[in-house]
Design goal:
Length: 185
C-alpha cells in the first residue's frame, strides 16, 4: 500500500490573512530592506517518529528465498535499532544447557535487551528471531560444557561463529555501537 512519510503544505498567506481578518489583529512583518509590511507565507511540515520508523521498517522487512527452496521472513533492522539485540538459545532443554543459557542472559541483560527461547527446534527459533529482527542468536550446546564457547549466528548472513562466552558482550557492543553505525551511513 501507500503511506505518507512526510507532509509539506505551502499555505501561502492564507492562514495568517484569515486569522488577521477574523481576529482584527495585524499579523504582518515589516521588512526594513524593502521598507514594506506583508503577511508572511506559511510552510507547514509534518513528519514524526512513527513515519520515519515506518520507512525503516518497510525497507527492512524482506522475504528471502533460501537455497533449499524454502523462504524466510527477515526483519533486517540495523542492529543498533533492533529492539532485541540477542536471543539466547539452549540447543536442548536438558544436560545443563538451559542453566548456562540463563546465566548468559542474566549477564548480558544489563547491557542489552536480550531474549531467552527454548521452545521448538533451534532452526524454528532462528526463524522466529529473524522475523522479529533480532540480529544475533547465541546457541548454547554440548560443546559449551567443555570449552565455554557458544555459537553466535548473524541474522543477515546466517553465518555462525564459535566464540568464547567471555567475548559475547564485546562482540555485541561492537555491532550495536551507534557512533560506528552513523559513521558507516
Amino acid at each position: 500500500g501507500f503511506k505518507e512519510l512526510e507532509g509539506i503544505h505551502s499555505r501561502t498567506d492564507f492562514d495568517l490573512s484569515s486569522h488577521e481578518k477574523f481576529s482584527g489583529k495585524k499579523l504582518q512583518y515589516f521588512d526594513p530592506e524593502l521598507n514594506e509590511h506583508y503577511v508572511p507565507y506559511v510552510v507547514e511540515t509534518s513528519v514524526g517518529l512513527d513515519r520515519m520508523f515506518l520507512a525503516v521498517f518497510s525497507n527492512s522487512l524482506q522475504e528471502e528465498a533460501l537455497e533449499n527452496g524454502t523462504s524466510r521472513t527477515v526483519l533486517r533492522l540495523p542492529a543498533v535499532l533492533a529492539p532485541t539485540k540477542a536471543a539466547i538459545l539452549p540447543l536442548v532443554k536438558k544436560d545443563g544447557l538451559p542453566e548456562i543459557a540463563r546465566k548468559i542472559m542474566e549477564d548480558l541483560k544489563w547491557d542489552f535487551s536480550v531474549d531467552y527461547d527454548e521452545k521448538d527446534a533451534v532452526g524454528r527459533r532462528y526463524r522466529r528471531q529473524d522475523a522479529v529482527g533480532t540480529p544475533f542468536c547465541i546457541t548454547v550446546d554440548h560443546e559449551t560444557l567443555t570449552n565455554d564457547t557458544v555459537t553466535i549466528r548473524y541474522r543477515d548472513t546466517m553465518a555462525q561463529n564459535r566464540v568464547k562466552i567471555s567475548e559475547l558482550r564485546d562482540i555485541i557492543k561492537e555491532e550495536v555501537d551507534v557512533k560506528k553505525w552513523l559513521m558507516n551511513m
